[in-house]
Amino acid sequence: MSEHDQLARARDSYEAFAAGDRDAIEALFAGDFTFSSPADPLLDRAGYFERCWPNHHNIAGFAIVRLIEDGDEVVVTYEARRADGTSFRNTEVLTFDGDGRIRRAEVYFGWDLPDDAAEA
To answer: pLDDT, tens digit, for every residue of 28-81?
Structure first.
């Protein structure tokens, strides 16, 4: 898979999450997808959809700040705007499998941003 494809798929995953498009997310994730964050270490695919997916209702949009491809990984820093108008910044490492699907997502929590900081 080319760098451009992985970067595009990474972007697509954030757009799909904000839009609540589960079909698009399902197509982007590998069957053995895992998700880890400080609050939810090593969730499998089913665990992600149970614990994390419902949060898409709270996200109004993402602004990508950093998108770096390194081999089968893409590092993404984003500023997200919540539905209530507040915003935050996180960094994630997405690992892709040989078929171009996201196999693993590692989330590193950032911080809340001042009300006027993010234009996601």
So the answer is: 999 999 999 999 999 999 999 999 999 999 999 999 999 999 999 999 999 999
Residue pointed to by tokens 């698009």: 24
Query: Rounded to two decimals, what is the model's pTM?
Result: 0.90
- The verdict on residue 18 lying in a domain is yes
Task: Let me know how many helices (H) and strands (E) the chain has, helices first.
Answer: 3, 6
CATH, residue 21: 3.10.450.50
Answer for the pair 44, 29: CB distance below 8 angstroms, yes or no.
Answer: no
How many folded domains does the chain comprise? 1
Structural domain includes residue 77: yes
Q: Are strands 29-36 and 43-44 parallel, antiparallel or unpaired?
A: antiparallel
